[in-house]
């Protein structure tokens, strides 16, 4: 028997990948309902589900996101072949701040217009046009990677279904007292003109000046700061209660003119102050520091704001309207003039910058919407750990017990400590953003003076200033229309609902009953606080379940020299370009090889090229086996003891690969099957078989069946890692146990 003509030519990834993609799409086997309907999966089979962490609609797949896709696809393909009712649900994220910033920048470059020139409706129309084009690009890239996602269940973070879920979640949390509107210090991005969360801050180390000085010649205590311009907003100096140096001054108050600005300073004792840091005294600027705001809370201090939303000074005198950097220099010069400066040092400083815009973040007091993570509420649903229905609990306690109880397992386990540390230091979460793209806050304000209906003078003052509901309300006392809050919700609020909003919540759908909690959340270790913790918070409160059973964290993909991949270094390796050049299977294997959970891994073009040779090796092995099969398939009789030993050896490899996948050591699984296929099957078994096959007779027949069986097993074990070349080969096999390899049964082995 000769091999099919296709094997007479070298493996051509471009040609074969397009054909295989078409086969998968036509089959619809990525949809678990189709698998059940056609008898591929039993209706009562164990469910296995993953929701794809939604890529940003503004971007393209880079090596980090490609690694995530490959890891999840390996888990999904394995589960599907093991007969589980398998769902991998796709979606995209609106990435509101980044998307709006990009569109606004493009509009200004081309038309010299701002969003305010266009108006809200027109800007959102332009953003929708942009995102519609971007969505198609990302979806195509995911398909090209071989991601076996169920596109019939595709979700977008701001589509109609997700919008309804977000509004419902907001209302329920508001009614439970977990969402409030209040005046707090927030991280303000002057460049983006919006608040951002702590997790959206990027710290950049820069050189700075540390100034040590007194407010006035007769002021008894010196303080140190890198931001002297903020000291015009100081209302206190805080010292440690046990610091004997300053004990005599605690409680005293001083009126001072500091750089033309009258300020009133009170000396207070507060345990948050570190005695041994600097002078041991802290100038308290309540309106421009979260720590100082909390000190002001404890000591009932005033909070004058001296910097505005554009990072300009608001005080009268020489500092008025100066940018903070210029004001810093002006205050330093004044201190020198007044001979108040005691010391000036060059020090390294971590500067807070906004991840999306690069703007230097200013802590400012703003009226915003917050999720209260410390307030007690009556738990209605969750049954996690020690938390029972009807018990009073905080969201922080709910988040902690989800992991402490073992309901969620974080892999690698060492990241649990990071998770607990973040929860212990978690402040109320600011969820409002001053942009126009995203989920608009479902709250309506009626703040103008109420003019009651005629004959209803007794209703003066009865108007409710704020209502939270989905419909646009009208005041029952004066017929005035309420105005919807102009802000939108933090992206992480809506994506926190991702595991259950994508399955149909708030309705009790069959998908939620079948697939929630999801089996695994796979993501980068750098996003555990952005997203993982908030999903646990939202699911625990709203659904009464953990959102996933396991959290698998991968590391950063670095270049061949171990450097972080970045545009500035010019070391970016595009996974799609590499796939075009060497085949997507080669890219997938190069990403997995050497990638242990939670650790960084390296990739280079040489590494990708090496796995292209491996794909060729599998192709050539198949040609040899089929040329010598003589019509014998893997069900033909294997009579020789030596051949049965080879089958047992393959079963041992199947067991090793399966166990490694079960424990998320995909790198070890890939390594095991790689070495068996290349070094054992190709280099030893096939070479040994050449003389056996020449001898003919029963011995040759047994070996032919053995080779075919080994090939079938290897293709199945390789398929989750290298789906294209294995599926391309499978469709050419004369004897096979499934029409497509993606639904073939996983190799059996003895436990």
Describe the fold and architecture.
Keywords: Aminoacyl-tRNA synthetase, ATP-binding, Ligase, Nucleotide-binding, Protein biosynthesis. Its EC number is 6.1.1.9. It holds the Pfam family tRNA-synt_1. InterPro entries: aa-tRNA-synth_Ia (IPR002300), Anticodon_Ia_Val (IPR033705), M/V/L/I-tRNA-synth_anticd-bd (IPR013155), Rossmann-like_a/b/a_fold (IPR014729), tRNAsynth_Ia_anticodon-bd (IPR009080), Val/Leu/Ile-tRNA-synth_edit (IPR009008), Valyl-tRNA_ligase (IPR002303). It is an enzyme of class 6 (ligase). A hairpin with a 2-residue loop joins strand 10 and strand 11. The chain is elongated, with a radius of gyration of 32 Å. The longest helix has 30 residues. The strands form 10 sheets. A 4-stranded antiparallel sheet has the order 6-5-14-18. The model has no long low-confidence stretch (mean pLDDT 91). The protein has 22 helices and 27 strands. By secondary structure, it is α/β, with parallel strands linked by helices. Among the domains are: 155 residues, Alpha-Beta Complex (Isoleucyl-tRNA Synthetase, domain 2); 43 residues, no CATH class; 165 residues, Isoleucyl-tRNA Synthetase, Domain 1 (Orthogonal Bundle). It starts with 12 loop residues before the first helix and ends in a 21-residue tail after the last helix.
Topology readout:
Layout: H1 13-27, H2 32-37, E1 47-51, H3 63-81, E2 85-89, E3 91-92, H4 96-111, H5 115-118, H6 120-144, E4 155-156, H7 160-175, E5 179-189, E6 194-196, E7 201-213, E8 223-225, E9 236-239, E10 253-258, E11 261-269, E12 281-284, H8 290-299, H9 324-337, E13 341-354, E14 362-371, E15 377-378, E16 392-393, H10 395-404, E17 409-411, H11 415-424, E18 429-430, E19 432-433, E20 443-445, E21 466-468, E22 483-484, E23 488-489, H12 491-495, H13 498-501, H14 510-515, E24 518-524, H15 528-542, E25 548-554, E26 557-558, H16 575-582, H17 584-592, E27 601-602, H18 605-627, H19 641-662, H20 666-695, H21 697-718, H22 723-730
Helix pairs in contact: 1-22, 4-6, 10-11, 10-15, 16-17, 17-18, 18-20, 18-21, 19-20, 19-21, 20-21, 21-22
């Amino acid at each position: 028997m000769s091999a099919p003509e296709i094997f007479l030519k070298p493996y051509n990834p471009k040609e074969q990948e397009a054909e295989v993609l078409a086969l998968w799409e036509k089959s619809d086997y990525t949809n678990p309902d189709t698998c059940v309907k056609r008898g591929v999966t039993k209706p009562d089979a164990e469910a296995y589900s993953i929701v794809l962490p939604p890529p940003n609609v503004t971007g393209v797949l880079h090596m980090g996101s490609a690694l995530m896709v490959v890891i999840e696809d390996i888990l999904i393909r394995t589960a599907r072949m093991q007969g589980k009712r398998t769902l991998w649900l796709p979606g995209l994220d609106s990435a509101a701040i980044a998307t709006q910033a990009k569109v606004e920048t493009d509009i200004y470059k081309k038309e010299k217009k701002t969003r305010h020139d266009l108006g809200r409706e027109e800007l959102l129309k332009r953003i929708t046009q942009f995102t519609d084009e971007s969505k198609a690009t990302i979806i195509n890239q995911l398909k090209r990677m071989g991601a076996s996602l169920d596109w019939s269940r595709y979700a977008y973070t701001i589509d109609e279904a997700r919008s309804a879920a977000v509004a419902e979640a907001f209302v329920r949390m508001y009614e439970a007292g977990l969402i409030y509107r209040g005046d707090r210090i927030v991280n303000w991005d002057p460049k983006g003109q919006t608040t951002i969360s702590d997790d959206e801050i990027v710290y950049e180390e820069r050189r700075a000046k540390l100034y040590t000085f007194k407010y006035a010649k007769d002021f008894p205590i010196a303080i140190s700061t890198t931001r002297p311009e903020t000291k015009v907003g100081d209302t206190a100096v805080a010292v440690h209660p046990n610091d004997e140096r300053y004990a005599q001054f605690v409680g005293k108050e001083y009126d001072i003119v500091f750089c033309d600005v009258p300020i009133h300073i009170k000396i207070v004792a507060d345990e948050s102050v570190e005695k041994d840091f600097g002078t041991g005294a802290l100038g308290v600027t309540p309106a421009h520091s979260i720590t100082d705001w909390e000190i002001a809370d404890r000591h009932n201090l005033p909070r004058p704001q001296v910097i505005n939303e554009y990072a300009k000074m608001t005080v009268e005198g020489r500092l008025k309207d100066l940018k903070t950097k210029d004001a810093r220099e002006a205050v330093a010069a004044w201190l020198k003039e007044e001979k108040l400066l005691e010391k000036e040092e060059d020090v390294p400083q971590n500067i807070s910058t906004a991840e999306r815009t690069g703007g230097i973040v200013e802590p400012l007091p703003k009226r915003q919407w917050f999720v209260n993570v410390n307030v007690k509420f009556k738990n209605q649903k969750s049954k996690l750990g020690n938390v029972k229905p009807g018990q009073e609990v905080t969201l922080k306690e709910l988040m902690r017990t989800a992991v402490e109880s073992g309901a969620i397992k974080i892999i690698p386990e060492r990241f649990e400590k990071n998770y607990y540390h973040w929860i212990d230091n978690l402040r109320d979460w600011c969820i409002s953003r001053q942009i126009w793209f995203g989920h608009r806050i479902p709250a309506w304000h009626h703040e103008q003076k109420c003019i009651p209906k005629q004959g209803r003078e007794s209703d003066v003052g009865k108007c409710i200033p704020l209502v939270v509901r989905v419909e646009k309300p009208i005041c029952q006392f004066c017929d005035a229309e309420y105005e919807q809050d102009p802000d939108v919700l933090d992206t992480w609020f809506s994506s926190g609902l991702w595991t259950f909003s994508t399955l149909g919540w708030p309705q009790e759908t069959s998908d939620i009953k079948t697939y929630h909690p999801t089996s695994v959340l796979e993501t980068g270790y750098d996003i555990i606080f952005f997203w993982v913790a908030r999903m646990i918070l939202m699911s625990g409160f709203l659904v009464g379940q953990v959102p996933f059973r396991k959290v698998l964290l991968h590391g950063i993909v670095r270049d061949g020299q171990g450097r972080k991949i970045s545009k500035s270094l010019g070391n970016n390796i595009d996974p799609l370009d590499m796939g075009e050049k060497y085949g997507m299977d080669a890219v997938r294997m190069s990403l997995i090889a050497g990638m242990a959970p939670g650790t960084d891994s390296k990739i280079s073009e040489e590494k990708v090229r090496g796995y292209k040779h491996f794909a060729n090796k599998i192709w050539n092995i198949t040609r040899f086996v089929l040329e010598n099969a003589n019509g014998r398939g893997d069900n033909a009789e294997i009579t020789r003891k030596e051949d049965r030993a080879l089958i047992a050896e393959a079963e041992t490899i199947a067991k090793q690969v399966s166990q490694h996948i079960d424990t998320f050591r995909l790198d070890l699984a890939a390594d095991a099957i790689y070495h068996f296929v290349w070094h054992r099957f190709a280099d030893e078994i096939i070479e040994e078989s050449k003389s056996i096959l020449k001898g003919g007779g029963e011995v040759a027949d047994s070996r032919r069946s053995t080779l075919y069986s080994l090939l079938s097993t290897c293709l199945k074990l390789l398929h989750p890692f290298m789906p294209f070349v294995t599926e391309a080969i499978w469709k050419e096999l004369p004897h096979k146990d499934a029409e497509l390899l993606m639904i073939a049964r996983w190799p059996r082995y003895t436990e």
